[in-house]
Write a structure and sequence with these properties.
By secondary structure, the chain is mainly beta. The chain has a single domain, classed as Sandwich (Jelly Rolls), CATH 2.60.120.10. Strand 7 and strand 8 form a beta hairpin. The radius of gyration is 15 Å and the shape is globular. The N and C termini lie close together (12 Å). The relative contact order is 0.28. The model has no long low-confidence stretch (mean pLDDT 93).
């Protein structure tokens, strides 16, 4: 199985005027390069909590802090990078085989996630050592 590993920060197009702002996210358009099959959001996160602790084999995600802020830590097996999502027009695109953790949720933060696949427990890698082993196997 061929895996992809891409992480990219994106600026979302804002449409609005003095009455307010609107951001539209559409499948297979400029910002969302996949069919959206699932949308979920994380909110009311207990202070100090780190969420995530997993990678996906093939799932693609677009993460947006629709309110407040949080930090996304992405690990490709060689390097860890931190991305701060702190404005609704900033997004983080993450492909499969990236270990991810979410932390530093501000009070009232809402993290919305658009996913390329329906929930499938078999797509998750929840053990970091298994993740590293899978990476070594695919790079051979």
């Amino acid at each position: 199985m061929k895996y992809s590993q891409k992480i990219e920060t994106l600026k979302l197009s804002v449409n609005g005027d003095e009455t307010g702002q609107l951001i539209a996210l559409e499948s297979n358009k400029a910002v969302v390069p996949f069919d959206i099959k699932r949308v979920y959001y994380i909110y009311d996160t207990t202070p100090g909590t780190v969420r995530g602790h997993h990678a996906h084999k093939k799932l693609k995600q677009l993460l947006v802090a629709t309110s407040g802020s949080c930090t996304i830590v992405c690990d490709d097996g060689k390097e860890k990078r931190e991305f701060i999502l702190d404005w609704p027009n900033k997004a983080l695109y993450v492909e499969g085989m990236i270990w991810r953790d979410m932390k530093n949720f501000s009070k009232g933060a809402v993290l919305m996630v658009l996913a390329s696949e329906y929930y499938d427990e078999n797509d998750y890698i929840r053990d970091y050592n298994v993740f590293l082993k899978e990476l070594k196997n695919i790079k051979k």
